Automatic annotation (TrEMBL):
Keywords, sorted A to Z: Cell membrane, Lipid biosynthesis, Lipid metabolism, Membrane, Nucleotidyltransferase, Phospholipid biosynthesis, Phospholipid metabolism, Transferase, Transmembrane, Transmembrane helix
EC numbers on record: 2.7.7.41
Name the UniProt record assigns to this protein: Phosphatidate cytidylyltransferase
PROSITE patterns hit by this protein: CDS
One GO BP annotation of this record: CDP-diacylglycerol biosynthetic process
InterPro entries: PC_trans (IPR000374)
Pfam families: CTP_transf_1
Taxonomic placement: Bacteria, Bacillati, Bacillota, Bacilli, Bacillales
Family the UniProt entry places it in: Belongs to the CDS family.
Gene Ontology MF: a single term: phosphatidate cytidylyltransferase activity
């Protein structure tokens, strides 16, 4: 626990100032986090990121998370993000032929879906900062941190009924509900202290639940590939996906609500 707290404090001290500043440093941070997250997923399947298919997967990811505000750069080359992604997909499929099926259609599917899973989440991380401003990023961060902490401590104190033992044996229904309650408390504080408006309580409940689903999705990945953590970059926490699994689900859904403010 001590190592976990130290890592959390150091990571927050590095992460939050960049989020506050925004702009190009935030783009670099987004690309770094997303790339490491994709590396962790590909490594789970024992694929090599430093290979032709690994590089193509990274390129797919980088195109996907390219910020909307800079889309005019792509326009100068007369290509859209969709068209570039299609080209990369075709190259990955071609690679199955070149390797005589050592790199299979299943591997292509895994690479593309992994890039989409990681990319969509981190794309909306940057877009939330641009469209909604700092307050919505802070809201999402503190809301998920409250959900995770509430689920852990309340589950440990009061948990009796297992939430989804086949996927994550330690999570309980009581902990899950406690996480939602803690998230709602954070939401109320944001209403009182910021200019966030709208049906924030209802939206927070939805986001907290989907944040927990994101956590379970990552647990399912790890159980399927028989790994404890997605990576080791964050001592006490694991990898980037271990830390951002909930937020990868929350940021796109936050945008589906059109930042409601």
């Amino acid at each position: 626990m001590k190592q976990r707290i130290i890592t959390g404090v150091v990571a927050a001290a590095l992460f939050l100032p960049i989020v506050y500043y925004g702009g190009f440093p935030l783009i670099l941070l987004t690309y770094f986090l997303a790339t490491v997250g994709l590396y962790e997923l590909i490594k789970m399947k024992n694929l090599n990121i430093f290979s032709i298919h690994g590089i193509l997967s990274i390129l797919f990811l980088w195109v996907l998370i390219f910020p909307e505000k800079y889309s005019d750069i792509l326009d100068t080359f007369y290509y859209s993000k969709t068209e570039l992604c299609i080209v990369i997909l075709l190259l990955l499929l071609t690679y199955t032929v070149i390797t005589k099926n050592r790199f299979t259609f299943e591997d292509v599917s895994f690479s593309i879906l992994s890039s989409l899973y990681v990319g969509i989440g981190f794309y909306f991380f940057f877009e939330t900062r641009v469209d909604g401003g700092l307050v919505y990023i802070l809201y999402s961060l503190f809301m998920i941190w409250a959900t995770d902490s509430g689920a852990y401590f309340i589950g440990k104190a009061l948990g009796r009924r297992k939430l989804w033992p086949e996927i994550s044996p330690n999570k309980t229904i009581e902990g899950s509900i406690g996480g939602v309650v803690c998230a709602v408390i954070v939401a109320i504080l944001f209403v009182l202290l910021t200019d966030i408006k709208g049906s924030i309580i209802a939206i927070t409940i939805v986001l907290s639940v989907f944040g927990q689903i994101g956590d379970l999705v990552q647990s399912a990945f790890k159980r399927h590939f028989n790994v404890k953590d997605s990576g080791k970059i964050l001592p006490g926490h694991g990898g980037i996906l271990d830390r951002f699994d909930s937020l990868i689900f929350v940021w796109p859904i936050l945008h589906l609500f059109h930042l409601w403010g």
